[in-house]
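Work Package 3 (structural annotation) set out to generate three-dimensional models for the target panel prioritized at the project kickoff. During this period the team completed the workflow that converts sequence records into discrete structure tokens, so that structures can be stored uniformly alongside our sequence database. As a representative example, we reproduce one entry of 613 residues exactly as it appears in the project archive.
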Amino acid sequence: MKRILRTPLGATAAALLLAVLALAVVAPLVWTDRANAIDTAQIMHGSSAAHWLGTDALGRDVFLRVLVATGISVWLALLATGLGVLIGLLLGAAPVVLGRRAGRFVTAVVNIAVAFPGLLLALFFAVVFGVGATGALLAIGLAVAPGFARLTQTLVAKVSGLDYVAAARVAGVGRIRLLFRHILPNVAEPLVVNAAIAAGSALLAFAGLSFLGLGVQPPSYDWGRLLGEGLQAIYLRPAAALGPGAAVVIAGLAFHLFGEALAKGFTRHTPPVRVRRAEPVPAVGATNDDAVLVVEDLRVGFPGVTPVRGVSFSVGKGEAVGIVGESGSGKSLTALAVARLIEHPGRVEARQLTFQGRDLRNGNARRHRHLLGTSLAMVFQDPMTSFNPAMRIGRQLAEVAEQHQGSTRKQAWQRAVDRLRAVRIPDPHRRARQYPHEFSGGMRQRAMIGMGLMGKPALIIADEPTTALDVTVQRQVLRLLASIREDDGAALLLISHDIAIVSQVCDRVLVMYAGRIVEDLPADELYTAARHPYTRALLAAVPDMTTDRDRPLAVIPGRPVDAAQAPPGCAYAPRCPLADKRCIDTAPPLRDGDGRRVACWNADVPVPVGEQA
């Protein structure tokens, strides 16, 4: 606000609006009796020193009546705006609160209403609710609502896709709390701006309805009614019509300018997993008895495309499993499907999907949220979008304990401070009271890990946890994850583009390409026993201290396959130097042998020199 008031536009708009609001409060208290005083000796007089805007048919001073009418004109406009904003918020937030089907219906209704001009809607509702101030109030409020609902829908949809909202869902935060704590505070600025502008439009609409005789009725009066009375004799007493008209313009301009000043100053549901009958695909690694997570034949699809196709793996207690592959290979979608964060219109199908022995494909959704919120920790790629920017770090961590552990607000706060200390954030008491933008990138990432530790996670899913961090901070984050595994026995599913980091941190490596696992092998054998040409090409593309600096860096030729146009055979065949007719025609199965899996017809065949990447 200080920045707004320092600008000429902001200062002028604020002063003008403050004057209008002050007049709306003071004028009815001070001048109502004089404005209503009838003087038959002064009927229909023009402008004079005694009556600046002349008098009306009963000899009442028009200027005083214009001042007194400020109260009812402004307050009715504000009430109508408040009603429209409230209804608009409810309609705009419906997809988040009501779920997909009911939200889709509400969205369709809003889209139909937005197609009609606001004034036309106001006239329609005014006829429906009847003549009078109450009917006009309801009519204008309902006319304002559709535009505000559309804006709210757009803003809410954008924020709902951010990581910190996904993190709140993983933590089991309910829809209502999610809306009011994590979504609406972060879309408040444009809503406030548009509410200020809508107030000016509502004032003009109210004056229009009263001018037409549909609004305020005698003996009450507002600017629209005074304007209608003044127009009856505009050629004889033009000031009687110009006065209320000028008041409407000035007040409307005050609201609109203040909204513009605010705009410049501010410039700074999970679908169920479907069971699909399919041939068994073995998931190797841990046995089902000691596995934290078991995934068999997982498929993630969207209209027209299936980016994850038949993924099977398991993660044992305390085991670290890495997933590597190029962008678009399906790594993150696999993790989101496990955490039940694939939104409509996405669909998830699996022959088996169990976490901590609990089948996530069906059952009580509330129990699943509690299980995932306490036993699964998600560390997202971008730590800046992983936290709600409008909430303090400590409150965001404490929310997990309040939701799932039944802790009091004080206990949850103490637990949050303790978890920040556990992830080695200095001065955790002070840091807990700070906002995300006050943390460095590495501290935000550690705080995100601390959020996962508010419960007792059996599995930590880290999706590119070291992206955009310098190597020193990367090492700190990786050491922190390793110490958590050692101290708490938590399993780790690490997703990364950096195959070197995965080989150092993980026990087992899954290599994904075009939505499938093409190789699964122990991490300590990655550089010596990789069998798939794609895995060997990835390794060859990573420079090391022995790389010849006089030669161009190695690259994998071609481009990754489009998930919407997956070929019938091996997806890597167009880029593979070993591809033959069988590779092009038939997709190789993921064959199991000796605790290792590989999907390649030509596994173990040496790649010609110079063609590894």
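The first helix runs from residue 2 to 6.
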